[in-house]
Amino acid sequence: IVKPEILAPAGGWPQMRAAVEAGADAVYFGLNLLNARARAANFDVEELPEVMSFLHARGVRGFVTMNVLVFDEELAQAEGLVRSIAKAGVDAVIVQDVGLVNLVRETAPGLAIHGSTQSAPGRSLLTSPVSGFSYQTRPESGLRCSTHPSVATAMMQCENTARSTAGEPWSAAI
What we know:
Blueprint: E1 7-9, H1 13-21, E2 26-30, H2 48-57, E3 61-66, H3 75-87, E4 92-95, H4 98-107, E5 112-115, E6 134-136, E7 143-147, E8 156-160, E9 171-173
Parallel strand pairs: 1-2, 2-3, 3-4, 4-5
Antiparallel strand pairs: 6-9, 7-8
Helix pairs in contact: 3-4
């Protein structure tokens, strides 16, 4: 039996502590800029090292949401933010903008990138031919996932490949 991963949102410290205490495997949160979680308390960039230390000391991964469209005049700010995110040891960024994907790849090549559900098929990270996304195997999970392009939001379809003979298990990854 494959244990599902629990990914919880955290708008601030109280929510992050609660998510960790409740057994979350990973937590996603926004910073005080360039994220769609504007109504949440969010974290300051300066807090990132403390946040990531807190999470990693408890075996929990931390994902930062940068799930907005980034305009030309915001690119320098986005690059600085990506550098801070990578330096703090964030496990992944969650993005919707294909241009931001390229910026993250160039600025912090080791930083994992996850596609946001904010992406719609017309601009989806998961279906765009210019995105250059790859599909990576995850044999330990026993799941095979694929993007379903016919729905209004980016959606993953997964099936158990432990019983499948159709090749290597794979999952959508950026």
